Amino acid sequence: MISGSEKAALLLLMLGEDHASNVLKHVSPAVVEKIGLAMANVNRVDKARAANVVAEFNSALQAETPLGIGVQGYVRKLFTTTLGEQQGANMADRVLGEEEIREIDSLRWLEPEMIARMLEDEHPQIIAITLAHMENEQAAQVLKHFPVEVQDNIVLRIANMKTIPQSAMKQLEEVLRKKLSITTSLKKRNLDGPQAAASIINGLDTASETRILETVAKIDTALSDRIHELMFVFSNLSSLPDKSMQMLLREVSSDLLPVALKGADGAVREKILGNMSKRAREMLEEDMDTRGPMKLSDVESAQKEILAIARKLGESGQIELGRGGDDYI
């Protein structure tokens, strides 16, 4: 079965160098690397395979299914390139609707530690707004470089955001201009604070997850519960459709599963084992029995790795993710 990155690679090869480069401007470095590797491994493309990929792309575009390659941004770029900046933008707005506020693209290519150093002397609210504009995975990596008490403060501020006022956006513009020579125009925007906070916390280690949720709970129990509901945790794997679970298992290293399942509840264990062949299931159960007791930190680390793989597959539209688990590890 052809993977999402392979489909993207085939489509980009068919688009040609100029259009492909415009598409890749709208995705993260990690995705660029993954698609680039897939492109490098393409030796030939038969007509039937190419037609299937194009047909699926067209169908997904009509349904507005996330493809992980910035479809609307790409279409907008085509309009402005063909018709000129102003006329193309007007046409894109009519066809696609008004352009949504995107993450600050220039920050995607910077090391998390560098971004943290740039922001360390800024007000926590400015830091929170910046992270809220970034991709969740990168925002989590940046957050890790701040002291614990600052991390808690930042996440709490993000979780409480509903609207980012124009005045705050202007402050962020000034910070970017002074410290990174980035000139950008940011508009007032609405934000689902709890969802943004949950997505960022998903990228942290278990100890940080627990600490931050406990801190939020001391201030606002309902908000903490809401964030928890929105987080994708290991117990959510039990709600994956069988096809999604089978695809996930193909991507997970055989060394991870026996460790991760040591700390899994019965529903998750049953879901995983039920989607394996009889032979694979027997080998996994035997491996788990022979390993004996394991450190909790090792179990949590293995579960985190599997969750990271599941989230990436979900974001690329390759699997359907369950949400809203009641327990976190």
Distance between the termini: 33 Å
Shape: globular
Number of strands: 2
CATH class of the largest domain, named: Mainly Alpha
Query: What gyration radius follows from the Cα positions, in whole Å?
Result: 22 Å
The secondary-structure class comes to mainly alpha
CATH fold field value of the largest domain: Annexin V, domain 1
CATH superfamily of the largest domain: Flagellar motor switch protein FliG, alpha-alpha superhelical domain
Count every helix, treating DSSP H or I runs of 4 or more residues as helices.
19
Oligomer: single chain
Strand order of the largest sheet: 1-2
Overall domain count: 3
The CATH architecture assignment of the largest domain turns out to be: Orthogonal Bundle
Order of helices and strands: HHHHHHHHHHEHEHHHHHHHH
* Sheet with the most strands, sense and barrel status: 2 strands, antiparallel
Domain Flagellar motor switch protein FliG C-terminal: 215-321
Protein name: Flagellar motor switch protein FliG
Membrane topology: Peripheral membrane protein
InterPro entries: Flg_Motor_Flig (IPR000090), Flg_Motor_Flig_C (IPR023087), FliG_a-hlx (IPR011002), FliG_M (IPR032779), FliG_N (IPR028263)
What descriptive keywords fit this protein?
cell projection, Annexin V, domain 1, disordered C terminus, FliG_a-hlx, two-stranded antiparallel sheet, about 325 residues, about 0% strand, cytoskeletal motor activity, chemotaxis
Structural commentary:
The chain has helices at residues 4-15, 17-24, 29-40, 47-63, 71-83, 85-96, 112-119, 124-133, 136-143, 148-159, 166-180, 193-201, 206-219, 221-230, 242-251, 256-260, 266-274, 278-291, 296-315; strands at 163-164, 189-190. By secondary structure, the chain is mainly α. The chain has three domains: 4-96, no CATH class; 105-230, Flagellar motor switch protein FliG, alpha-alpha superhelical domain (Annexin V, domain 1); 234-315, Annexin V, domain 1. It has a two-stranded antiparallel sheet. Helix 1 (4-15) packs across helix 3, helix 10 (148-159) crosses helix 13 and helix 13 (206-219) runs antiparallel to helix 14. The longest helix is centred in the C-terminal third of the chain and has 20 residues, at 296-315. Residues 63-71, 98-103 and 323-329 have low confidence and may be disordered.
